[in-house]
Amino acid sequence: MFNPEMRTPLLFFVGLFFIMFRPTMDAEKPFQFATTPGKLPKEVLPVEYSVRIVPNIDKFTFTGTETVKLSVRSPVRQLVLNSLELKITDASLDGKVLPKSAIKTDKKNELLILALQSEFAAGDHTLALSFAGKINQQGQGLFYIPYQEQGSGTKKIMLGTQFEATDARRFFPCWDEPVFRARFQLTTVVPEDWHAVSNMPIEYEKKTAGGKEVRFAATPPMSSYLNVLVAGELDLIESRSEPTQLRVIATKGKAEMGRYALEATAQILNYYNNYFGAAYPLPKLDQIALPGGFGGAMENWGGITYYESALLFDPKNSSAETKQNIYEVLAHEMAHQWFGDLVTMAWWDNLWLNEGFASWMGTKCTAHFNPQWEVWLRRNLPRDPTRRVGIAKEQAMEGDARSTTHPIQQPIATEAEANSAFDDITYKKGQSFLRMLESFLGEDIFRDGIRQYIATHKYSNSTTADLWNALSEASKKPVGEIAAGWTEQPGFPVVKVKREEGNKVSLTQERFTVNFRNAPLLEWKIPLTYAVVGEAPATLLMANKTGKLQNIPTDRALKLNVNGAGNYRVEYDEPSWNLLLQALSKLDVEDRVNLLSDGWALVQANRAPVSLYFELVEKLPASTELAEREQLINVLDFINRLLVGSSEREKFQRYARSLLRPTFETLGWDPKAVEPPAAGNLRASLISALGDLNDQKIIAGCRERFAKYLTSPKSLAPDLRPPVF
């Protein structure tokens, strides 16, 4: 039998001595246009663009013209806007053609500079430009996607766009920083048998040389990166959620696989309309499936683009996990229609306002309609590092404990830095912090603050300070003071729990680190939740390094971080830990998963022996709880890979199989006629895990089922195909 006391390289050593250091944090100010960072001067504002794009599919190039209505706030001698990989052929101001010598480009800074012969007076003016560019292979600017048509296998091509963070400037010259909101009216020319889609409905189509001209209605004021154009041989399905037209658009032959997404879109839209207290403002919402070009999804206002696997569901071949992933991605991207599109961060250092909020809101919505998926619990698990949506807390905390971490809010000076900000800290720590804050303030109060924030800043920009001000007003609590440590400094705390005489419990916070020598010691204002097992939870703002709980019975288990909603670890002293072990069967699965996650993290940080984790595992009540077993599977997989080449590996594998086999025997190979959705997910996870642990019965069962699948594909349920294959 495997000895859980054995020591392996999984015990990372942390330095004993630390440098005391607390970075100074300048309080962020509410949004002001004039002081927002960026390269572009703010004397000239775009008000409305009219852009016409003519792609040449054969040469993978395009030509374009645009007129821009400008508001000049003070006299200027030049116009400065963004342009990248575009050839500017003509420029005029108020109908007067500029000489070629007045048109200059700064490739390094991705700027177009129009030098004026005389001072340009304040007031309203019109800029006109002609330009040419290329259609890219990769998902930047306007790009092309080769694919095979469903059914016929005929090779086809279509067009799509991807502009976030700073690639709208590859499509047309523009003020390509999020603070420069404007209306956009797009016209394009495409082959006659193509369908074109953009943010707004089509105003008209007419035949023209080389195809048809399609003109779209003007958008509301929005940031340049939210524009979209998709064109190709497309099909669609549609419905309505009054007054909004809902559509799923895909290449020919695939639209019907968007039926599930269409139904989910209506459900999610109604939920968000109610939650935000502001109805979705555009006349349509398109969900658009692209067969390549980029991964994931992009929240273009009114025309969200997805990689096909993130949107299309084939009931005959897609797994339950795929269905769940589609819902989560939909919920995330649709949350952006408010947080990101209706209200946009002023600059990329507040990207987390878009992505952290959309991740939190999307998970909240998914959990509301699909409690059987246990998304808050399962999303605590570091299962797939390539996914940005969900899987939030544990994956963010793993990275945030190391020397390579950074604050949620970080200075962004260049385009490259803006693109690099799309990482786990932005998405997942941002989501986790918002969930903790909601848990502390209360759901209704938090929602009221969000509604106030949306109402105040719609069709405009904001900073994190604006969100904190709205939540502070709703809650009557100093949210900005609480939040600063979580968003403006790296890392997170561990709260050490120690029983004292007189029914008292002392609390001490430290920075939690893994393999990070001489880490600066930081402090946080921690929104704690705690409960004596069997009693109602309570809250405490731990504003200093130490704190105290009163009237905690010495013979009752005390659980901090109720339901695991907080973004901190907890390290219990031996008496407190032993009481929790005795009370495990009385804890909700959320709290058991939280104990497992914290227990394993303490082992990785060399704060506890590996025996602490496996003692907890062996005392868990027998169950088929998905999130609980998946947390264990993740740890066993980590150790199994760590022991490659070790003489201890076979012994460990026998022990690990003994932990997982009983649950698999309960579930069995074949799906039951009536079983919860989580059972299918867990069955698949167990098959994969036991196979990796060299379970010969599982390996033989996989081979048998794969051989049968080759002659009878319907013999293997979609949920079982990934682990069997």
| CATH fold name of the largest domain | Neutral Protease, domain 2
The percentage helix is 25-40%
* Strands in their spatial order, largest beta sheet: 5-4-8-2-1-11-14-13
Strand content: 25-35%
- Based on helices, strands and strand pairing, what is the structural class? alpha+beta
Poorly predicted parts? 1-25, 380-391
**Mind telling me the CATH superfamily name of the largest domain?**
Neutral Protease Domain 2
Helix count equals: 18
- Separation, N- and C-terminal Cα atoms: 30 Å
Describe the structure.
The chain has 18 helices and 29 strands. The protein is of the alpha+beta class and 725 residues long. The chain folds into four domains: 1-23 and 489-606, Immunoglobulin-like; 41-141 and 156-230, Immunoglobulin-like, CATH 2.60.40.1730; 233-480, Orthogonal Bundle (Neutral Protease, domain 2); 622-725, no CATH class. The strands form eight sheets. An eight-stranded mixed beta sheet has the order 5-4-8-2-1-11-14-13, with no helix packed on it. Strands 16-17-18-20-19 form a five-stranded mixed beta sheet, covered by helices on one side. Helix 3 packs across helix 7 (424-441), helix 8 (443-457) crosses helix 9 and helix 12 (589-604) packs antiparallel against helix 13. The radius of gyration is 28 Å and the shape is globular. The two termini are 30 Å apart. The model is unreliable at 1-25 and 380-391 (pLDDT under 50).
